[in-house]
Amino acid sequence: MRQGLQRNARILAPKGQKQVGIATSGERGTTTTVVCAFSASGKYICSFFIFKKKRMNAQLLRGGNENMIAVVSESGWINENLFVDWLHNFISFAKPTKENPILLILDNHESHVSLDCYLLCRQSGIVLLSLPPHTSHRIQPLDLTYFGPLKSAYNRECDLYMAEHIGRRITQYEVVELFIKAFNRINNIEKAANGFRAAGIFPLDPTKFDDFFTTSTAQSETSFDNIQTPEDQPQDSLSRSVSLSDVVALPNLPQNTTKQTFRKKHSIIITSTPMKEVLEKKQQNKNKKEQTEITKNEKIETKTKKADGIDINTRHPLGWTALHTAAINQKVDVIKVLLHDGADVNAGDNFVNVYRTAMEMGLHSLDVLMKREEEFSDRLNNRATFQGFTALHYAVLADSKICVKALLDGGANPTVENEAGHRAVEYATEGEIKEMLIKHAIKYDEIVKEKEAEERRRFPLEQRLKQYIVGQEGPISIVASTIRRKENGWIDEEHPLVFLFLGSSGIGKTELAKQLAAYIHRDKRDSFIRLDMSEYQEKHEVAKLIGAPPGYVGHDDGGQLTKLLKKHPSAVVLFDEVDKAHPDVLTILLQLFDEGRLTDGKGKTIECKKAIFVMTSNLGSEEIAEYAMQLRAEAERLLNHRLNNTSDEDQEPERIEISRNFKDQV
């Protein structure tokens, strides 16, 4: 049922170089496999082409017809997966059922004996008979009357092609066209009927199988007289289907369950019940062997890269790391090696999605998609956004419990959120993985709180702020004590914290708000919202803050403040130069400062009671400057007085303080 069509790279002839494509059964050159099948009545199923390529190209079917099917493989030969694909094609043509099964005869090739093939045939009503090796030339109808003429016809078409196209090579793109011409030249009902007759299969000739029945342990319980001849029907050169009435009924052949039944030298009914256990064991051994080999190679490759001085956290040009790749492909052994060698377990993926990444990097989206599928994973939605995904996120998407456990044991933070604000547990289905993530998240939160409390004791907030702000000890002390009360729960949780920083430009009001956000939210970019209130000097600018009302342009865009607060309701919000805003804008802020909620232009209420609001202003800066001049003059007077009165050297110097009257009035 299979014939290899090969294109030899170069054949030297006495009068020069001659490049040809020939039909052969040898494994040399560039192989294109063609799977053929016909029934006892002479009906042919359209050919199934297997090209030696990595990716399918529509041009490979040039010159074919709409019923042709083509796939690709690295070797050009059939394998277990491709044979299952061919079986699906065969089922669509033959339409077998369990009530009216079809006998399918083929040679004992390794690709035909698999668990997937067994399950598909049992489900579809196909009885699969595998012939012993080196016997197909005697009892395979295709080999007896079909493949010989097909080879000759195909080679003749190659000669005609080269005569018409002098100097051109026969490539894979010409194979289908040449094969179809050869196929149509030799295709007829007589060849199929004569093949079954010569093999002794139909009409059944027991004398053809004397040696076969002697060596086989299978016995027939059906009389040869019960086998009926299918009706003669007219047949086109290429048929779309095979009728069930055209297939000979299969005698009941109970199988002996001894080990000798499944030796390669015997014919095997692959779809028999005793074969299931054998095929399952074979599949398990194959999977185990492949997994062991892959894991071994991956470990060697990882250790080699480390020995060569390659950074284990090096990113792919499109943004992911080796740990991300191991997690999504469920390579638990590789994950352990990477973590042992210092891989960043909480590093996020910089890959956004196919189209966004292609646009940012100036690449074609198809190139990005191919790299993503070939070098990362082809199981992910190419339209989804993956920016910020950690290895734990990918392990959860892969639904791999052992990978999730390995990452958690390696220090993965289950509370890390991606750019969309989702934790890994939100991508987990109900089950052990979700429960494991929830338990680790609770433990991790407790550990983090203990570490933060210890860190606050050793390095108070005042010291942190003084690293960035010179002077201003009074304001820093007030802000730090207020934040400590909030951390210890000594505040009214129904109302947000509101600060008002007054003073001249350049003394650190804005910087104090920034450092406050960095301390509370650990340098998260969305944790600090800054609004320059000088942009809201007009009455209609209120719409920019909370969003335009329904019916106006920009209604769906949302407000500059409400949109950011909805995304991060516990942020530190800075209203810079609040005195320059229109009074109606300040009226909107009353609800925000009093109850910690804000209603946007769409009528939706945003709760932000955990947020911290900071207002800055230059109000009173002139009065403060004038009073500062008075303080400097007073300090200079006291200094001169001490210099002139040496007898007062032992006295404690007077301190310059802001008067109570200035504090109350200004």
Q: Uncertain spans, ≥5 residues at pLDDT below 50?
A: 1-28, 212-264
Proportion of beta-strand residues: 5-15%
Largest sheet: 5 strands, mixed
Q: What Rg is obtained from the alpha carbons, in whole angstroms?
A: 40 Å
Overall pLDDT score: 78
What is the level 1 CATH name of the domain at 32-199?
Answer: Alpha Beta
InterPro entries: AAA+_ATPase, Ankyrin_rpt, Ankyrin_rpt-contain_sf, ATPase_AAA_core, ClpA/B, ClpA_ClpB, DDE_SF_endonuclease_dom, P-loop_NTPase
Domain AAA+ ATPase: 495-639
ANK repeats: 318-350, 387-419
Protein name: Caseinolytic peptidase b-like protein
Task: Describe this protein with a few key phrases.
Serine Threonine Protein Phosphatase 5, Tetratricopeptide repeat; elongated; 16 strands; single chain; disordered N terminus; Nucleotidyltransferase, domain 5; alpha/beta; Rossmann fold; four-stranded parallel sheet; five-stranded mixed sheet; 12% strand; 24 helices; 666 residues
Secondary structure elements and pairings:
Elements: E1 2-7, E2 11-13, E3 16-18, E4 21-23, E5 30-38, E6 44-52, E7 69-73, H1 80-94, E8 102-107, H2 115-124, E9 126-131, H3 136-139, H4 141-145, H5 147-164, H6 172-186, H7 189-199, H8 210-215, E10 268-269, H9 274-307, H10 322-328, H11 332-340, H12 354-361, H13 365-375, H14 391-397, H15 401-409, H16 432-458, H17 461-466, H18 473-487, E11 497-502, H19 509-521, E12 528-532, H20 542-546, H21 560-567, E13 572-576, H22 583-595, E14 597-599, E15 605-607, E16 612-617, H23 621-644, H24 660-665
Parallel strand pairs: 6-7, 8-9, 11-16, 12-13, 13-16
Antiparallel strand pairs: 1-4, 1-5, 2-3, 5-6, 9-10, 14-15
